[in-house]
Design brief:
- With 163 residues, the chain is α/β, with parallel strands linked by helices.
- The chain has 2 domains: 2-131, Rossmann fold, CATH 3.40.50; 133-163.
- Helices cover 48% and strands 18% of the residues.
- The protein has a 5-stranded parallel β-sheet, with helices on both faces.
- α3 (69-75) links the parallel β3 (56-64) and β4 (81-86).
């Protein structure tokens, strides 16, 4: 079981690296490829249309600027596609967000926040966990740990107030 991660440029890698790290933390492989919707469209089509044969269960596509990568990927598969708009332009990623989120009816892309790589990975894991109870348990444990960390931080703040 794999998640394909498509990035439009090598400059997107520092932003998307946390997605791969998060997937690995949960024991899921992330298959990373640099491919451009505009400069290498045949490569994108080939990667996406053959993804299921490689045991890829869903795709995370990240791009900045016009950010058509997630939409192009979605047009070539029925696998779920999660888009991550990248802040790579003078518009601070707003152009990428709008390009990713405004898909035509019939070709959906789940869209994360600008530079939302980690949440994209977590959302992918939640989708995969629908058919994998062991993964679902890891996610429940992760959420419990997050809640515990918040309580610890709250206790530290209160302790400082009491000083």
């Amino acid at each position: 079981m794999k998640v394909a991660i498509l990035i439009g440029s090598d400059s997107d890698w520092p932003i998307m690296k946390p997605a791969v790290e998060t997937l690995r933390q949960f024991g899921v492989e992330g298959e990373v490829t640099v491919a451009s919707a505009h400069r290498t469209p045949a490569k994108v089509e080939e990667l996406v249309s053959t993804a299921a044969k490689r045991d890829v269960r869903l795709i995370i596509a990240a791009a900045g600027g016009a950010a058509h990568l997630a939409g192009v990927a979605a047009s070539h598969t029925i696998l779920p596609v999660i888009g991550v708009p990248i802040n790579a332009s003078p518009m601070n990623g707003l152009d990428a967000l709008l390009s990713t989120v405004q898909m035509p009816s019939g070709v959906p892309v789940g869209t994360m926040a600008i530079n939302g790589a980690k949440n994209a990975a977590l959302f992918a894991l939640e989708i995969l966990a629908l058919a994998d109870e062991a993964l679902a348990k890891k996610l429940r444990d992760y959420r419990a740990k997050l809640a515990e960390e918040v309580e610890q931080k709250g206790a530290r703040v209160l302790a400082q107030l009491e000083k």
